[in-house]
Model the fold of this input.
Amino acid sequence: MNQHGTTPDSVSHYYSSLRGFEKLFQSGVPILTYHKLGPRRRKARIKGLYVSGSLFTRQLDELSRARFVTQPLKKVSQVGQVNQPSIVLTFDDGFRSVVEFGLEPLAANRYRAIQFLVADLIGRTNEWEQKEGGAPEPLMDAAQVSEWLAAGHEIGSHTLKHPWLTRLPAREAREEIVASKKKLEDLFGLTVEHFCYPYGDWNETVRDMVIEAGYQSACTTEFGINTPNTSPFAFKRITARYPSRNLKAWLARWPLLKSVFLRLRPEP
Done:
């Protein structure tokens, strides 16, 4: 697995359009994961973390036309009690581009989302990515987080500094989990109930720290759909991104193209 919880050949596990996902989405509650919206930086190290504003708008419009409604994380376990198909929209890290390119299409579709914030880096940049050669990206400042909240959206914790929690001594990992919750609550005057494991990096010890800190749920990067049997501290998610240019993925998506390709392929 890589740091985003997927294997290198799992391109089909990324979400770009409802086509091909309808049946899967009907089996429970899907949680879509976004990071950065808008134009991709020239020196971006992980291109798949960007979704253009136009694609994001199309994705929401498509879900809305299919009568999907957004649900908060606290209602994921109540699947089966909702009459319409449901989806949860999550954003990791607190990038400013989400406010710039996301608020209008979310409002246009009457959708609500949750943003997982890196508490010590509010108003700064993505320092954890830059340490690995990533391009600088601004994060929401306190005023922009307040704007996000005023629009009816939620926030959750993504730790203090976005570390690999399982690599830290227990005392430091607990501080990242506990102190980030308190800092966000003090800054914005609300209760922070939801957590997201940075890099999808967690184990039973980390999970128990999250529970002890008083969170009500935690999101992973494991691909899948959530049902009443899914642990609220191991919610599965599906990463949204631009359509893949991978030939295998295109052939899987378009059966007619696949049949033409097979007919034209030279005999061995």
About this structure: The chain has a mean pLDDT of 87.
